[in-house]
Amino acid sequence: VSFIPGGLDCSISFVSHVLGKVCVHGRQKEILGVLVPHLMDLTKSDCIWQRICWRLVECVPDRWMEAVVLGFAQGAPTADVLSRLLGNLVVKNKKAQFVVTQKMLLLQYGHTTAVLQNLLGYLSLDGLRRTLLLRVLQELLETWSSSSAVKHSPAEQQLYISKAIVICLSHLKEPEIESCRQELLTSMMEGVKCHLDSSLPQLRRLGMVVAESISLKINTEEPVLKFEYEEDDETRELKSLLVQTPPFCVVPSLPDDDRSEKAGAALPSVSESKEKPHTAAPLMPDEELDAELDSDDDLTPYDMSEDKELKIKAPVYIRDCIEVLTGSRSEDVDEWEATVKALESLVRKNPAATREVSVELAKILLHLEEKTCIEGFMELRQRAQVAVLTTDPIPVAKYLTSQFYSLNYSLRQRMDILDVLVLAAQELSCPKFHGTTKHSGAQKPCIQRLPGSDSSKDWRRIVDERIKSKTRRFDMGQSHVELASRPNEFNSVAGHFFFPLIQHFDRPLTTFDLLGEDHLVLGRLVHTLAILMYLAVNTVAVTAMGKALLEFVWALRFHTDSYVRQGLLSCISSLLLSVPAERILADMTEELLETQSWLGDVMEKDPDGDCRRLALQNLLLMDNLKKKLEAVPS
Amino acid sequence: MALPPPDPQFVLRGTSAAVHTLHFSCGGPEPDIPLLFSGSENGFIHVWNLKTHRVGAALDGHGRKSVYCVETMGGKDRLLSQGRDQRICLWDLAEGRTSVTDSVFTEHVGFCRCSLLKVAQGRWLMAMAARSLEEVQILELPSKTSVCTLKPEVGAKLGMPMCLKLWQVSDSQPVLLAGYEDGSVVLWNVSMGKALSQLICHQEPVMSLDFDTEKAKGISGSSEKVLSIWSLNEQQNLQVYKTHELVNAGISDITIRPDKKILATAGWDHRIRIFGWKKLKPLAVLDYHTATIHCVSFSDHSNPRERLLAAGSKDQRISVWSIYAQT
């Protein structure tokens, strides 16, 4: 191929056919790896070679066009190389147009960012093709802002589309933005709504970043949309795509760099020289001071050792704390602050006194709002709640679970209840977690961030570790050191934590509908139940809990929200890990078999990657269970 | 071994309300009784007899609204008081009278104490915060004519004036030092009505300031932990001279003793602190009160040994101390 003679009127179509056939058989990399660099050099300045190249790709038959275009898009190093090689193929050839504007952007999502950059850059480099760019942007935005797409498509595809949108935006010029400003704005509003509705923090972040990028582009004078979210690699990468570095300016900028370097070098020296007179100035007053006659010596100071920082004392009795927090005493905010800070330790030191007023204290804490600006108020409040709950579990758990299903609480308060129940259960069941934050990731309440699956991710990690340890168990023995043992305090109260929560989930209230709009809380509830189930290992109620949980999961198994589904699958994992194998076999055989077929279904067809992984884990666990039981001689 | 701080010489009780302002009048010749005027939150001005330690008279002129400034105008017979009823009252107290002779309606709803300066026999200049947020008005008393209004430039964002001090050096023009809500102190030329210099002393509002005209040095306190000492150079520019960090945040009042040797600060941490003025050397911490101290004042006794320091607090007591009186 590299020996095509110049000047001869030869027919390229044969070469095109060969190229097409090779590409369709999957050998794009090999052939284009050789072809593309040659063509790159040849077409750099030579128009004839450019036209030859264009003829080459145009003559590829339609049935192989996709493979060829794909190969070029992947093989070309930058967008303008792609432009030189393909020319206006995308405008002239219907199939190529379909592949570039529809298939590679909307139907496939496995390509790298570089390929996306090449494709979209290619579309933007020629006037004829720019109309296609606008059309592509419109279609991408339509997909991005459709709520069903956000709910049902996998996270990877959504990331891909978001990247494509941001790259398109970066290529748009002012007049084009002007013409489609209104549409951009409408799509942005709709899209942001769908994304923020989602229960997965990753999708919310993607939505926020794309909306910010759109807002940046269309609003030049007014204040720009700005969200608060945690930056991570994904969002940083996405944001960096918005800024395009035009490839043409690479060469001329070198002399600029030298100049800017010199300017940069000049600046530090200027600032240094400025600093010196400043350091000289303060020296003068000091010298003057020493020179003055010290006539203050005749005034002898008194003893000032008692002069310390003023500390407000917190009340020492629990009932005093209650009075301060409800404001029935004086409205002294300093005292209120001191009480909030001291409450947890007071509760832990006086369990008997706390038990007398536990429900009242729990009520006050649930409704406690930040009066002054204390650092870590949320954490202080939560720790106090956990302390109260662990000191007097049964009545307080009864109160909290009943409040979870009551009217007129905010979603935040309901999720707080769930968090407190989990932390207290953790403390009661595992003595080594108490006090010191050994597994600090699992212990931290993570309240300051958006309610996300953060805590459940840590739990998943712990569950995973446990699964790992279990799957190898019949090879390796118990190798870890025995820890100091204490009676399991969770045993007597596990049921009180668990059953009230699971009872009323299908009864909608006026302000709270778990099965309807409030699927975020449902997701959190399901994760909480999974954790409670996991912590109930070795308790008496574990089998009854397992049965109830299995029924609960069965009722909700087709829920549309992937966060809820992930929770349901974690419930199954906890179940399989906590309920003793014999009891599972004896009491839950048919339900387990049904669950197994459901899990197989999820593993193959569920759009969410995490769900599929969890389903696979569960199937493995079930398998191990079976093997273990078969291994034991009955 | 340093001595423990002294106890108050005596404590005046009986105001039944938080004490916001104090002013001594002890300079009179012998048959005159040394007096202490105090203004309280319940609107009363008490005239304390410092020989018997009892209230001589209680003046009610502000409609039970808190009185936050009292000053004498040339002797104990004429008193000026400022209250939260937006009025400044002039009293005639000669021969046992207790009547309001005149009043100025300031329309000021803040807490900025006015400042008096005697310019000639029977003529005074008074600086007070005016109705508009950032302005300071200078009036001539007793004629109540407005001399000028000091307005910061547009966009200066100084906030309310928090404390004022009018002074003049011998026969030159009177100047005003004003501390503002944004933490800056501004020097104004009163006759021309324009600002000569501005210095940002604090990050929080300036609560109180005092100025030593001889050394051209001043000190300001704020709601933060820092005391700021600044000086005025020949070009009438303010410069920060020194700062001093306190143990607890919050200063309500600062006053320098007339002999310019020591100064006292009233703290939100219930303590009075005494410093040497020359180098701001901490000298004593007087811990008697149980609530935030609102004001401190030095007496104007002609005999140095009799000099007193008084502090009024939210705990409704006035403590009177004799400290460093021998120097």
UniProtKB/TrEMBL annotation, chain A:
What GO terms in the biological process aspect are recorded for it?
'de novo' cotranslational protein folding
Give its localization. Cytoplasm; Membrane; Nucleus
Q: Where is the Telomere length regulation protein conserved domain?
A: 315-425
Q: Which GO terms describe its molecular function?
A: Hsp90 protein binding; telomeric DNA binding
Keywords associated with the record? Cytoplasm, Membrane, Nucleus
Q: Name one GO cellular component term.
A: nucleus
Q: Pinpoint the TELO2 ARM repeat domain residues.
A: 129-225
Domain of life per record: Eukaryota
| Region Disordered: start-end pairs | 253-288
Q: Give the signal peptide, or none.
A: none
Q: Hey, which family's this protein in?
A: Belongs to the TEL2 family.
Q: Which PANTHER family does the entry link to?
A: TELOMERE LENGTH REGULATION PROTEIN TEL2 FAMILY MEMBER, TELOMERE LENGTH REGULATION PROTEIN TEL2 HOMOLOG
For this entry, the protein name equals Telomere length regulation protein TEL2 homolog
From TrEMBL, chain B:
Q: Which domain of life is it from?
A: Eukaryota
Name the InterPro entries on file. Answer: WD40/YVTN_repeat-like_dom_sf (IPR015943), WD40_repeat_dom_sf (IPR036322), WD40_rpt (IPR001680)
Q: What is this protein called?
A: GNB1L protein
Question: Could you tell me the keywords of this UniProt record?
Answer: Repeat, WD repeat
Tell me the organism: Eulacestoma nigropectus (wattled ploughbill)
Q: Which PANTHER family does this UniProt record tie to the protein?
A: GUANINE NUCLEOTIDE-BINDING PROTEIN SUBUNIT BETA-LIKE PROTEIN 1, TRANSDUCIN BETA-LIKE 3
Q: Which regions does the record annotate with the repeat WD?
A: 199-240, 286-327
Q: Where is the signal peptide?
A: none
